[in-house]
Amino acid sequence: MWEQIWQQGLLGTSFWHFMIAMFVMTHITIVSVTVYLHRFSAHRSLELHPAVQHFFRFWVWITTAQSTKEWTAIHRKHHAKCETAEDPHSPVVKGIKTVLLRGAELYKEAATPETLKKYGNGTPDDWLERNIYTPHKLKGVFLMLAFDLLAFGPIGITLWAIQMMWMPVFAAGVINGLGHFWGYRNFECSDAATNISPWGILIGGEELHNNHHTYPNSAKLSVKPWEFDIGWMWIKSLEFVHLAKVRKVAPVPIKDTSKQTLDLDAAKAAVHNRFQIMSAYTKNVIRPAIEEEKSKAHQELHQLFRKAKKVMSRDESLLSDKAIIQRDKLLSSHDLLNEVYQKKQELMAVWSRRSASSDELLQALKQWCHEAEQSGIDCLQEFADQLRLYTLKAA
């Protein structure tokens, strides 16, 4: 009997048993990281029942050898110092190859006492954390190894190895690497974060990284109708059984088509929804202007327009010297593009006044709309006209 258990484990060596176990266990690890470590601990975008918190904390201990405080502190520092030399894992600074191949090492290097003290507030500090989870991190993963061997016999080592590699490869490498290097962007946030895929399934919704960096305190990472965040599905499932409570999600723009004038409500709503509005500006003003100028340009100049939308919409700090030269060349030779680009910069300056008084904010936005309406540019006039419709009042 014992020999059979040693050779085949309690669950046997069935291929499908092995595959199901691998999928379930790695998915629980992903959910533990995205729901517990990321959205709950680092950003406090939801509340979790104490029992759920501890289950996730225990699972992280036996599958990642990382403490809640370490992960939370490093991630908070990543947001605070994003794309700078102090960012623990920025591919913009350290190179994509380094982050992809050394993601887990970068976490360890970043877990300094200074970082933990400054960014690790509000994380568990009970008897279990002080006496078991933090000082005995390796014992957790060896406990997982013992379980895998008992369940599957010697092939359990393979399952354990996959579990141990899952987060270093997909979270520490893919999300922190590709999530700031390759993909699409719904919003032009001030860092290089991208959405790797619109379907956040394999990595729990973390594939929607640009959405997250735009709205870091949102419990839901999907924002477009075609995007799917499986982590949000689990959060709503936990909320349904009263084991979780969502605290914050990304704002959804509301328009009131009956509004006739740009009032204070519209100005505040515009600031509140500024990322969506700037995304709409790129789509409804910059892109049509580029297409109009391109249609009038000689064929040999069409190459100049190839990356026009990117260089005209992205934050200058994220552009290479070559891209800035290309943008300036476009703007200097096309008055229409120069006009819509300058109006974009001026509108962004209005958002920066959100700490000003309400009256100052309203007057600044009214002045911008007045100038846009007097520009003679159809797409700019239509965009300005739409700003009066925004509202903070629920429909």
Shape: elongated
Helix content: 55-70%
Order of helices and strands: HHEHHHHHHHHEHEHEEHHHHHHHE
Number of helices: 19
Give the termini separation. 67 Å
Pick out the low-confidence regions.
Answer: none
Question: Could you tell me the number of beta strands?
Answer: 6
Q: What is the overall pLDDT average?
A: 91
Going by helix content, strand content and strand pairing, the class is: mainly alpha
Model description:
The protein has helices spanning 2-8, 15-42, 50-64, 68-80, 91-94, 96-110, 113-119, 127-133, 137-152, 156-178, 209-214, 230-240, 264-272, 274-296, 308-313, 321-333, 335-351, 358-373, 378-387, and strands spanning 46-48, 199-200, 228-229, 244-246, 254-255, 390-391. It folds into two domains: 2-246, no CATH class; 264-391, no CATH class. It has 19 helices and six strands. The radius of gyration is 25 Å and the shape is elongated. The longest helix is centred in the N-terminal third of the chain and has 28 residues, at 15-42. With 395 residues, the protein is mainly alpha-helical. A two-stranded antiparallel ribbon has the order 1-4.
Brief overview:
The protein is mainly α and 395 residues long.
Task: Give me the secondary-structure topology.
Elements: H1 2-8, H2 15-42, E1 46-48, H3 50-64, H4 68-80, H5 91-94, H6 96-110, H7 113-119, H8 127-133, H9 137-152, H10 156-178, E2 199-200, H11 209-214, E3 228-229, H12 230-240, E4 244-246, E5 254-255, H13 264-272, H14 274-296, H15 308-313, H16 321-333, H17 335-351, H18 358-373, H19 378-387, E6 390-391
Parallel strand pairs: 2-3
Antiparallel strand pairs: 1-4, 5-6
